[in-house]
Design a protein that fits this description.
The protein has 239 residues and is an alpha/beta fold. It has 7 helices and 6 strands.
Length: 239
């Protein structure tokens, strides 16, 4: 062994490899923990229909699952069914009741497994019901469990004479949500909100618009009564 080789051997022997081994162990453990968390997390395979009463949710649900119209009634429990998509994937479709006392309680059973949410709006009455329509939508969009969910705001009943188009409805909702979040912010500041599961919606330095939320928001129009649901079907097939 010549002098150069001996010097290199000495230098290697002087190196403390323990910090490197510790760092490597931390990386491996971190990767393993992330893997376990993802494995245990519920899969998001649910497609939720929600909205106020009489918006046409159940009829739309029936058309999507069965392809035909059924007689609908105000329901006190959710409807569930399986839908096979064109990409060979299967979604569980859930139609939640629109009754105020039921919708949020039942939503808790599905929001952690929701892949996409369809918020159905009655386009013919949205102007007079805008406060309730916007308030429920705000609650959904501000829920942390739904932060990464794709949302379709479906402006139904376009066949009605007084129906608003989706651009007009988008503008109405943005203006009303801007007012609602100011009210809710003031309420939260006056109480202990340590256990609150919602987030502030949008940017505090600007008037609200849908580009500010974490969800991917789309608008579409439909007429369930006339079986005109092409935009809805296109949205579902893109999931």
């Amino acid at each position: 062994m010549d002098k150069t080789t001996r010097k290199e051997a000495i230098r290697l022997s002087d190196i403390n490899f323990m910090p490197i081994l510790y760092a490597l162990a931390v990386v491996i453990i971190t990767i393993f923990v992330i893997y376990l968390i993802k494995k245990r997390a519920p899969k998001r395979t649910d497609l939720l229909f929600t909205g106020l009463c009489d918006s046409g949710k159940t009829l739309l649900y029936s058309l999507i699952l069965n392809g035909n119209e059924v007689e609908t009634f105000t329901s006190l429990k959710e409807n569930c069914g399986l839908l096979n998509l064109e990409n060979s994937k299967t979604l569980r479709v859930v139609d939640l009741p629109g009754h105020e006392r039921l919708r949020l309680r039942l939503l808790d059973n599905y929001k952690n497994t929701t892949k996409a949410l369809i918020y159905v709006v009655d386009s013919s009455t949205v102007q007079k019901d805008i406060k309730d329509v916007a308030d429920f939508l705000y609650t959904l969009l501000a829920d942390k469990a739904l932060a990464s969910t794709t949302v379709l705001i479906l402006c139904n009943k376009q066949d009605e004479t007084m129906a608003k188009g989706m651009q007009a409805i988008e503008s109405l909702l943005e203006k009303e949500i801007n007012l609602i979040r100011k009210t809710r912010t003031n309420q939260l500041q006056s109480v202990d909100n340590s256990s609150d599961t919602s987030v502030f919606l949008g940017r505090s330095d600007k008037d609200f618009d849908f580009t500010q939320v974490s969800q991917k928001i789309r608008f579409a129009e439909s007429s369930a009564k006339n079986n005109k649901i092409e935009q809805l079907q296109s949205f579902i097939n893109d999931l």
